[in-house]
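Q: Could you predict the 3D structure of Leucine-rich repeat extensin-like protein 4?
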Amino acid sequence: MASFPFFTFSTNSLILLVLLNLTYLLAAKHSKYASHHNHYHHHHHPLAASNARLHQASNDRLHQAFIALQALKHAIYSDPKNYTTSWVGPSVCSYEGIYCAPALDNPEIQVVAGIDLNHADIAGFLPDELGLLTDLALIHLNSNRFCGILPLTLANLSLLYELDLSNNRFVGPFPTVVLSLPTIGYLDLRFNNFEGPVPPELYQKKLDAIFLNDNRLTNIIPTGVAGSSASVLVFANNNYGGCLPPSIVHFANTLEELVLINTNLTGCLPQEVGFLYKLRVLDVSFNNIVGPIPYSIAGLAHLEQLNLGFNKLSGIVPAGVCMLPDLANFTLSNNFFCEEEGICQNLTSRGIVFDDRRNCLVEKPNQRSKRECNAVLEHPVDCFEHPCECGEAAAFPPTISPMPTSVPLPSPSIAPTPL
Ligand SMILES: *[C@@H]1O[C@H](CO)[C@@H](O)[C@H](O)[C@H]1NC(C)=O
Ligand SMILES: *[C@@H]1O[C@H](CO)[C@@H](O)[C@H](O)[C@H]1NC(C)=O
Ligand SMILES: *[C@@H]1O[C@H](CO)[C@@H](O)[C@H](O)[C@H]1NC(C)=O
Ligand SMILES: *[C@@H]1O[C@H](CO)[C@@H](O)[C@H](O)[C@H]1NC(C)=O
Ligand SMILES: *[C@@H]1O[C@H](CO)[C@@H](O)[C@H](O)[C@H]1NC(C)=O
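A: Sure. Here are the predicted structure tokens for Leucine-rich repeat extensin-like protein 4:
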């Protein structure tokens, strides 16, 4: 399915600097040639002198970091891999999972710029003292057992660029504290228990990728959304419980992947979905979408993956969609389509992976029964009579077919990031 995007850290060159530094430090710290680095210090390598000075004494900011990290250590109930065993004494830069770099505003001093505890399996909560780590550029807590809510003091992290809290046990409403992070560019909250509406302000942040899948979030694309810079939106396995609003068009200038699998999406697909001219992946499978395929989808010149499977779509599969130049995989199984136009009848002849099983296509094998089809097709849906407004589910006549009870397995693009 969806490919993982390559993130462009072009938003802020200062942040880029920190990230580059961190990348270097991450590599160096894990390198088995670490002793060679020490060796350099004894020779008069140009970097050695400044490194020595940097490592010298603690400074006030490292002392603040010491307070914050000790508070975090005390908020940990279980650390089966002993990540925090090394968190003793004031040398926070040598703590496992803690990465230091020269301060942006004063390259002479070292500050804590990154926390990377991915896959540590730690159980605990995030204490208020994390607000003291004002030099943090990245926090990676993927695949731990952190619980509770995010402390409001995180608003203090004015340099934070990447926040990955995926695959933890955070709860409560959408953590609005992330909206006050001025430089946030990558937000990954998937596989937690956040619930309730997603604030429209989220889309005003300069976020490149937004991963919210596998929570209990509602109203995922508020109708009032005015624009966004995101290229990837993954909302699968939440409870949207409404229709896709025409305001999705405001994502057109950047959006390349839209993944809304199993979000209790209702109503018709708006024509505007076809105005997202950069889309490569559109997956709205396992929902309650009714009506026809908007013809505008035939204009998505870069579309590679189109998954409409497990909905209540009906009508004709338009030839224009099947002729899209980059189309590689088109799934429309488990709907109520009654006709495939032109080339759509044999997409394998174009080398496209295609699944049209369990529809109402009289000339194709593995279709629904006549009775099942008639029950739905006798009540054609008029999308103009039920426009999607205010994120509300339009009142559509009930349909007969039961929804699948099994939840689709997370595909690679919605699984937690490996590191
Ligand atoms: C962590 O430390 C405890 C106590 O020293 C030890 O029993 C355990 O084996 C260590 N676990 C790992 C994964 O190193
Ligand atoms: C925010 O950061 C400043 C240092 O820049 C610190 O003095 C202050 O205590 C922090 N506030 C919180 C709530 O952590
Ligand atoms: C789907 O959303 C509707 C509101 O549109 C709600 O009534 C229903 O309970 C939701 N279904 C599930 C399974 O949560
Ligand atoms: C095509 O897409 C479907 C639905 O997303 C997926 O299950 C299948 O693995 C894909 N096939 C290929 C060959 O990419
Ligand atoms: C589809 O096209 C391929 C190659 O052109 C052909 O071998 C196959 O028989 C066709 N299938 C149907 C059902 O027409």
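Q: Anything worth pointing out?
A: Confidence is low (pLDDT under 50) at residues 1-18, 23-57, 390-419.
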